[in-house]
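Subject: for your reference before the review

Hello V.,

The reviewers asked for a structural picture of the protein, and I figured it would be easier to keep everything in one thread rather than splitting it across files. Below is the amino acid sequence we used in the manuscript, unchanged from the supplementary table.
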Amino acid sequence: MVIHLRKLVVCIALPLIVGWISSLITQSSMVVFETINKPYLSPPGWVFPVVWTILYILMGISSYIVLTSGQSFYKIKTAVSVYLVQLIFNFIWPVIFFNAQNYLLAFVCLLVLWMLILATTVLFCSISKTAGKLMIFYLLWVTFAGYLNYSVYLLN
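And here is what came back from the structure prediction:
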């Protein structure tokens, strides 16, 4: 298997940049996070950037595997299109949650994001089992984030 380094770097950089720009827009997120009522299972604030960075890298690797799979153009285009839409929702969610502090709307956005991640995972898995498996970590984390988001909505 030949690794296309430039394509791999772009695939990993894309979700990292999306996350970075979102974090710039929500710079006060940890201040907000510390002041709201949180559920019992809420991790410390430092966990979030570490986990998200790992997930963005895994997402990038997964998308690279799909793009270089050699599958049909239509199949890859469909999978990558859903992947890009979920990245948009991934970008929007923290802005709604932290900046707007609209926890119910953020939860609805997160539900849509979750469904898009599930669709992306299924589509990626149909192209490459490895690419699909890498997305499962993201799906699990967003499931946990859904619990946190909904709990924050109820507690605040």
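For the response letter, the relevant points are probably these. The radius of gyration is 16 Å. DSSP finds six helices and no strands in the chain.

Happy to draft the paragraph if you're swamped.

O.
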